[in-house]
Amino acid sequence: MGRKSSRAASSLFILTLWSIWKERNNKIFNRLHRPAPSLISAIKAEASLWGLVDTSGLGALVSRSDDVP
């Protein structure tokens, strides 16, 4: 795995953790819950936006991840 690919994977990992953390807080403090497929879609949409900046190669990684539900 190249340096740029490794940075992209790290960015995607951080984005996913951050999104799960925000969802957890929303569930606990606001008593709001959304189903997992909705959360996954939101993470994909946010990753696409991060991919537009593409400083870490995330755009290429996200465009390959269409097979993820």
> Low-confidence spans: pLDDT under 50, at least 5 residues?
none
Quickly count the domains. 1
Count of beta strands = 0
Radius of gyration (Å): 13 Å
Structural write-up:
α1 packs across α2 (36-53), α1 (3-30) crosses α3 and α2 runs antiparallel to α3 (58-64). This protein has three helices and no strands. It has one domain (3-67). 77% of the residues lie in helices and 0% in strands. It is elongated and about 40 Å long. The chain has helices at 3-30, 36-53, 58-64. The protein has 69 residues and is an all-alpha fold.
Helices and strands, with pairings:
Layout: H1 3-30, H2 36-53, H3 58-64
Helix pairs in contact: 1-2, 1-3, 2-3
Q: How would you concisely characterize the structure shown here?
A:
The protein is mostly helical.
